[in-house]
Amino acid sequence: MEKVHFTEDQSTNLATLYGRALDSELPDPFLGDPTAREAISKIDYDFGKFKMGTDEALSVAMRAKPFDDWTREFLAANPEATVLHLGAGMDSRVFRIDPAPTVRWFDVDFPDVIALRERIYPSRPGYQTIASSVTDPAWLDEIPADRPTLVVAEGLLMYLDPADGEALLRRLVDRFPRGEMVFDVMSKLAIKLQKLNPVVRRAGATLRWGVEDPHELEKLGLDLRTAWDVSHFAEPELVSHFSAKYRLQFKVATRIPAFRNFAHLLRYRY
Prior knowledge:
This protein is an alpha/beta fold. It contains eleven helices and nine strands. The longest helix has 24 residues, at 54-77. The chain has a single domain (64-269), classed as 3-Layer(aba) Sandwich (Rossmann fold). α1 (8-24) packs across α2 and α1 packs across α3. It starts with a strand and ends with a strand.
């Protein structure tokens, strides 16, 4: 069993790993990630402290699935692409996607997180890890800029200082000639009310960067393709997976603009 000693912000990646593992154990999983279930069996950590029930686990899986779908779409169109998975944490996305060996895939995160990944997950063709803070400009020098590049940053940007987040996005746009970025953002109200988020509260993490309008980020050289707010996840085929309590919460949230725009899942072209 691998012991972990993560910071509070880093601990959120264990919470989401646990959520995906719980989802995989459901009779009808939303995401289905057996690798996550295997991973938590190898980690010596009190996952019970997250007090995560079925609804919370489904929420984690529901957020992850669009990123997986967009990644598959990009790789179908660009079979020799580069994928940068920023703030990868313990996410087993590379195993869910199972890209061809022609794809260059980089998981980037802090050295202690990458060290745990390398002890828990097997190596695979075309896959590399980079042990660095994503906000350190130096790690980008390791990445060739000769292919279409997909940047995936699920559950990352809201933990960065706004100046650091904008600088990171600018560097990525400047470094790679063409590609896509997929990431999620939270509104400024969501940042203010962050202690209502059970995953953030129980991990003791801190959210810092709120984005009110996804078009704000077009000033960084990004072209918005898709912007999903909370109402997307209230679609009947999605919300039917949840308990009556959660379905009611989604219904209320979609009718109040401030709550409907609490979070966005975004897909940009550059």
